[in-house]
TrEMBL record:
CDD domains: ASKHA_NBD_BK. SUPFAM superfamilies: Actin-like ATPase domain. It holds the Pfam family Acetate_kinase. It catalyses: butanoate + ATP = butanoyl phosphate + ADP. Its EC number is 2.7.2.7. Belongs to the acetokinase family. Keywords: ATP-binding, Cytoplasm, Kinase, Nucleotide-binding, Transferase. This is Probable butyrate kinase. The gene is buk. GO terms for molecular function: butyrate kinase activity. PROSITE patterns: ACETATE_KINASE_1 (PS01075), ACETATE_KINASE_2 (PS01076). It is found in: Cytoplasm.
């Protein structure tokens, strides 16, 4: 009998789950949450009980006994900076995510749901490669405004999983490679992996815009907008995350719809599409300098990487840096499960989450 692992990945409008036996997926489901359903909850944390019950119901629908689980793993939420790999979910982590979240984000529910179900059946709950994984080198933290601390928020889970997978498929050790991984999804982040460490990133507010994010924007003009009296604090944040990027220009977050617009002769759509590719290429170029040009490979991943046209155009811009490899898809449930499997097999160790004094001053 193999290890059976439940992986839970809460998103803004869905909760994706999968059950694996070792590296074999037994079943998966994306549980969708309509806007009308979610508007009944004042905060994301308030959605906890509803989402948990839907996860348990999905197990029942698939005739799977939760008592057979060896472990449960949730998408790591937005915590103060953490190390890569696995953390055991404990009361300290639960308290932080539930009562003092850094940002209200659906991924925070991953640990909460996992912990409650795991307690019921007497197994461990983990998070793996949290959004808040931070391995930045010191020189990458310095900003021009001393009062602002640069921290690392990225698609660490999928970025590291695809880097490790690429190394394995090429009979290399991830810790011996220099890689640039671009996660192309609703948000876009790019990471420089140097000998197994994510030494720097271009986060979703530091580089290219994406379907739902504004990306890097001129600070002076943003300050002017903030003090114009036209927008509330909440409205400005929404312009940066949620209503910025492609959706702000073209009223869609679906890159396939943008490509259809272009096919139908929409010149504005073509300009925005080309600008997205241009900015992602710039971000990858930035990180090539971090690695001093010593780049073994560039990996394009995430949902947008399914677009052969987009990845072809992007590859044409960046292949002078290093060979470009497309590993499309978010692969997050697989990454969560495989990471937890390595813990259960004793191939990796997990950390205990401890909230340090400096964490309380995180900004």
């Amino acid at each position: 009998m193999g290890y059976k692992i439940l992986a839970i990945n809460p998103g803004s409008t869905s909760t994706k789950i999968a059950v694996y036996e070792d590296e074999n997926m037994l079943f998966s489901k994306s549980i969708n949450h309509s806007a009308s359903e979610l508007e009944n909850y004042k905060s994301i944390t308030d959605q906890f009980e509803m989402r948990k019950e839907k996860v348990l119901n999905t197990l029942k629908e698939n005739d799977f006994n939760k008592e057979d689980l060896s472990a449960i793993v949730g998408r790591g939420g937005i915590l103060p900076p953490v190390k890569p790999g696995a953390y055991l979910v404990n009361e300290v982590m639960v308290d932080r995510l539930k009562n003092r979240p850094i940002i209200e984000h659906a991924s925070n529910l991953g640990a909460l749901i996992s912990y409650e179900i795991a307690k019921e059946i007497g197994v461990n709950a983990y998070i793996y490669d949290s959004v808040a994984v931070d391995e930045l080198i010191d020189v990458a933290r310095v900003l021009g405004i001393p009062e602002i601390k640069r921290t690392c928020l990225s698609h660490a889970l999928n970025s590291r999983a695809m880097a490790i997978k690429f190394a394995k498929e090429n009979d290399r050790d991830y810790k011996d490679m220099n890689l640039i991984v671009a996660h192309l999804g609703g948000g876009i982040t790019i990471a420089a992996h140097k000998n197994g460490q994510m030494v720097d990133v271009v986060s979703d507010d530091e580089g290219p815009f994406s379907p739902e994010r504004s990306g890097r924007i001129p600070v002076k003009k943003v300050v002017d907008m903030c003090y114009s009296g036209k927008y509330t604090h909440k409205e400005m944040l929404k312009k940066i995350r949620g209503k910025g990027g492609i959706v702000g220009h073209l009223k869609t977050v679906d890159i396939r719809e943008v490509e259809k617009m272009i096919e139908n002769g929409n010149e504005k759509a073509k300009l925005i599409y080309d600008a997205l590719i241009y900015q992602v290429a710039k971000g990858i170029g930035e990180l090539a300098t971090v690695l001093e040009g010593d780049v073994d490979a560039i990996i394009l991943t995430g949902g947008i990487a399914y677009s052969k046209n987009l990845t072809k155009k992007l590859s044409d811009r960046i292949r002078f840096i290093a060979p470009v490899n497309v590993l499309a898809g978010e692969n997050e449930l697989e990454a969560l499960s495989y990471g937890t499997l390595r813990i259960l097999k004793g191939e990796e160790s997990y950390r205990e989450y401890i909230e340090m004094v400096e964490d309380l001053n995180f900004n």
